[in-house]
Amino acid sequence: MHNSSTATVNHEAHENPALLHHFATEQQQRDAASLGMWVFLATEIMFFGGMFCAYLIYRYWYFGDFGAGSQSLSVVLGGTNTAVLICSSLTVALSVRAAQLGKSTTVVVCLFLTMLLGLVFLGIKGVEYHDKFVEHHVPGASFHFPGHIPAHPDVPINQQHAQIFFSLYFIMTGLHALHMIIGIGLFAVITYYAMRKRYGPHYYTPVEIAGLYWHFVDIIWIYLFPLLYLIDRHK
Amino acid sequence: MFQSMPLWPARASTLANNVDALYIFLLVVSGLMSLAIFTMVVFFAVRYRRQPGRRAEQIDGSHALEITWSVIPFCVFMVFFGWGANLYFKERKPPQNSAEIYTVAKQWMWKFEHMEGQREINELHVPVGRDVKMIMTSQDVIHSFFVPAFRIKQDVLPGRYTVAWFHPTKAGTYHLFCAEYCGTSHSGMVGSVVVMEPKDYEAWMGGGGTQPLAVTGQQLFAQLGCATCHRQDTQGRGPNLAGIYNKPVLLEDGRTVVADDDYLRESILQPAAKIVSGFKPLMPTFQGQISDEQLNALVAYVKSLSQASGQTGGKNMAAATAQPQM
Amino acid sequence: MATAVLETGERETYLNREYGIKSWLLTVDHKRIALLYLMGITFFFFIGGFFALLIRLELLTPAGDLVQADTYNKLFTMHGQVMVFFFLIPAVPAVLGNFLIPIMIGAKDLAFPRINLLSWYLYMIGGLLMVYTILNGGVDTGWTFYTPLSTEFLNSHVITAGLAIFVAGFSSILTGLNFVVTTHRMRAPGMTWSRLPLFVWAHYATSIIQLLGTPVLAITLVLVVCERLFHLGIFNPVLGGDPLLFQHLFWFYSHPAVYIMILPGMGIISEIVCCFSRKRIFGYQAMALALLGIAVVGFLVWAHHMFVAGISLYAAMIFSLLSYFVAVPSAIKVFNWTSTMYKGSISYQTPMLYAFGFIGLFTMGGLTGLFLASLGVDVHVTDTYFVVAHFHYIMVGGMVMAYLGGMHFWWPKISGKMYPEGWGRLAALLVFVGFNLTFFPQFILGYMGMPRRYWDYSHSPEFQILNVLSTAGATILAVGYLLPMVYFLWSMRYGKPAPDNPWNAAGLEWMIPSPPPTFNFDHEPVVTWEAYNYDQIREEVPVAQ
User: What is the CATH number of domain A26-229?
Assistant: First the structure.
């Protein structure tokens, strides 16, 4: 917490233009930004949580149909995406570290890599969505998911239950993708400022909190992937 | 025409007396608590009003008081909870031999079908002194079956059955309201429950040449080809349905479920959801091919196949016990 | 204290520092943002109130003869949506919380002033979407928009209403985020957690609920909109979905939401009761813990809105039990406020009159909540006017009275002018009388069996007399609400200039001028006193001018 000296406000402002007027010290500003991002991520957990809740309930009720839906997704593409995102979390962490150490070029390079990996993720997602569209697995009038429940060759797939699987699939991955797009946008702005050498050991807060956000988006995917793609795959 | 008391609903079921007792208890206790607080506030406001020469006395608090006025209200609240929960437990469990009436709610009317076959719209006739169980479903949105004089209310859902029961104690005509907002004519989805003396009820019953619901169901059972697979011997490709109502059923995936009303309904509309152990998932679905009323008839028929073996199910009014269950 | 002076020789305040619409629309000053919110809040309060008046007029007679059934359904829907999402939830935090919290903790502003401005813009965008919905024919789902009615069976503007609420929800989330971080990180030296005014504790507890609950509403709205647009079936039993899933998701937010609405009001009452009794609060720790307790336990009781919805018997019992748990901290607060008055030196200015009203009416509203928590009674009274009366006692008898009390208490600080005390007391009295006449008969109506959301009750003429009483009360209530609008505006031009501390109240906000300078404090305060240090303040409340 802020120390109890009666320091008159903002004499540090003369030294550090990044210090905003309503904060007494840089430390306070940094702590506030960091706490703010953590609190925001808590709200995001609740946001995705509602969907996870709906998903878990229907998966329990319609296990067979959900299994069929899951197995129609590509583990190769999904798995690749998982690796891509994890790597992008690495590049983000490297960029924060570089900022802390004042290595501006490394910061820019790592941020570019992060955005690139993010775009790769979105590209692969696009390919997956395209496949689903072509196979008529998109919920709606032309939805058609023939076949049988895994391990039960004489039980046909219930079209309604399968459609719920795909509805949840698209909404959950869609919202996740939206969060990624926002994250890439954030990083674009931050990269721009990084190229102008705005960040260094004295001030790297935006890199750090954007990094936190990106890690969170990664973690959401790490839950989504097994829940959506890996139902009953061991059979 | 409708029975009521000034500022109080009519009391026409066994439950009503119990609910009123709890309500009055709540009123008295809450009234006393409010009075105590209002009196204190007014008294302090006057007694400790600002006066020249007197200053406020700073008092930090008192752990003893905080604990006291946490624990005592909590105990009182537990009485409220316990009494209410006990009443609810009885209210949610229809007595064993209740007469059954199938209800289909739709925007914006109530359709009733007695086991003896009488159909009513918006007006429900029942006799005094019998347990009555409403087995209800909706054709469209969520409605709610509310009879203030009986102190019962139960939401009626599309896609499944919900149940309410009552034991009328007084002849008369009582309001029936839909209590879950259901669109334009929600306030028009009203009717009446006509409670009749047993003799009058018999007379009313005898008035139509109706076919018992279970017989309608039997005819449908044959018409739709159910009998082809669900035979009374062990040769059928589907399980024998005699005596299954409210009995446990072993499913193919190892679970055991009870064959209640919802199970029977689901078995007709979504047969693949639960496959009985030892059978193949061959049964086609009838979703979209039969109305809710026809579905009710089939369920009533299957339940009637249990009566011979002495289980409860598909009881008509005459067989329902005359003793109140409360 | 602060003596910054403008070129004109006037003392610099947050109001005269800069003029012009741009200086308002691009401000990051928490005090200006509070006033921006005040305009929106007031606007929506009167829109919602107007809908309420139409509802009460229709219900004067049993027949549906004022408006058509569909119109009536839209009126009660939009009354609920506007009042809940655009008045009750934001009012105290966004107006009084924004204005006062930084000052009360000795800070220059909230932690994130620009996010604060963004919150306001989100509120206004949500508000615009709501106005658009209203003007284009409205929505008639009920504010609870249960499925499948709202997703499959109605042709009204469900999606735009849903979007309006979604956007306003983000405003709420960001405000909560700002308050939490501010309280943690921006306190002045010496302002420890145990010296915080209860107003700040109340907003902290509220913010926790806003942060954790509102996102669930947001995702529920997304699912409903998607369901409506694409006929998905998540909540539609015909397509394999479950309507009860919607209800669980909806109430998971909407129950804690009622605590979002009332906790800030409780914070206000603590400030007012202490000042006008000249005493520190009785049981500070218990009061702070009670606020947190209500916030936490409030998340565990949502299905008490679903006792007759078709949930299991045992689930119902658990939720009933938990609902009684949450009643205990609320009871503690009422006892503590009453005890604060004991051996105080009490004066009856307008804010204190509202506080008296709050204590009485919140007690009644809270006690009737116990009726609803009791399963056996709830089966009879749920979905009737009993519930309507219960929540209006808490929301209007509680929250709105607290809001008005707070507005009167801090008006001198905010505007630098005194409101006319005589008119203030008259309005308070009218509000109290009007309120009780409007809503008490509804308890009786509910037990008699009148369901809610009924446009026409011609089958039950026995309901009429109580409805007439209720409508009569509503007209008195309306006058009571209009009066402050008029005299607050009047006071901005003609009111007596307010001193720094017109009430001789405790708290950092009273140690700076009225209205405050833009950066609140000349020098960062160092706090060495406990909250409500009325032992150190020798003066009484000045006699009303």
Answer: 1.20.120.80
